[in-house]
Amino acid sequence: MTSEQAYYGKGYDKSVSSTHAWRTVKNSAEFVIPVLKPNFKVLDVGSGPGTITFDFAKNYLTEGGKIIGVEPTQELIDEANEYKAKNGSPSNLHFQIGSIYELPFEDDSFDLIYCHQVVIHLQDPILALKELKRVCKPNGYVCVKDADLISSIVYPEKYQPLADFYAIKADASISTDSKAGRKLYERCIEAGYDITKLQYSMSHWLCYEIEYKLKWADATINRIKNSKENPYPNDPLKNQQTKEEAIELWNQWKDDKSSFFNLNHFEIIYKK
User: For this UniProt entry, which residues form the secretion signal (predicted)?
Assistant: First the structure.
């Protein structure tokens, strides 16, 4: 049986969700803007801590539009609702429990489906992509974005093991595909998406400004220290050594004036 939430298979982890809480429409969903209208009914599948969902509701769905964020984990729904409450509780925003494998909505319910860094973590991505298409209205849009972890760059070269750490940790888990980004287009075709209605693009997160380097490194270090994620789960000694080395390198990286981090993403927009 496919796990509802393999990414949090060891339980909800605040140190993981906190590394997602900096995300906004501008840095994570800009590819959606050309097809988004302010009166759309939108579904955010895998809304996490809710920051992107909130941004859509407050700043983009301003003419009668509304958005629902779904997660299969109650703690994430609670975290998103807390963020909503602290920021004015827009009436066009709602969070609820829901599985990407069996969304609790009728066929043809939404003008736009947004799914960010979710398919990358799924045991059955094809089933999930079919379900996204099911709840999308005719002439509506399915918008999906996945990272390609294995192609990350951390520079100067002496910090490249930090990129390798991402890929090794992903490959050691059952919940993350380090090559998911490059596979996204192919997976959509396998899920029955009409190739003539698919738009394919790439974007990236480039972290080089001092303020953002400090935030990125500190959040990542906290996650390494406190999450249940392990690069070598079957070798405790190597696992601990690798984590300690990564923490030391992140501390050096954030203080290095010439350093940067680049993470590539692949995106699709499908018009149903």
Answer: none
> 264: part of which helix (H) or strand (E)?
strand 260-271
Residue 11 tokens read as: 């339980």
Confidence band of 168 (pLDDT split at 50, 70, 90): confident
pLDDT of 6 > 60? The answer is no
86 Cβ contact list (under 8 Å, min separation 6): none
Does residue 49 or residue 96 have the better pLDDT?
Answer: 96
Burial 135-157 (b: 16+ CB within 10 A, else e): bbbeebbbbbbbbbbbbbbbbee
Asked whether residue 2 carries a pLDDT value surpassing 80, the answer given is no
Number of structural domains the chain divides into? 1
- Candidates 12, 25, 24, 15; CA nearest to 77 is 12
Residue 15 lies in a domain: yes
Exposure of 182 by Cβ count < 10 A (0-12 exposed, 13-18 middle, 19+ buried)?
middle
Q: Give the pLDDT score at 224.
A: 87
The structure's pTM equals: 0.88
3-class DSSP state of 12: coil
Question: Could you tell me the residue range of the domain that residue 118 belongs to?
Answer: 8-271
What CATH code is carried by the domain that includes residue 183?
3.40.50.150
List 4's β-bridge partners, or say none.
Answer: none
In this structure, the number of other CB atoms found within 10 A of the CB of residue 101 comes to 16
Residue 91 lies in a domain: yes
> Has residue 3 been placed in a domain?
no
Rounded to 5 degrees, what angle do the CA atoms 86, 88, 89 make? 90
Inside any domain, residue 57: yes
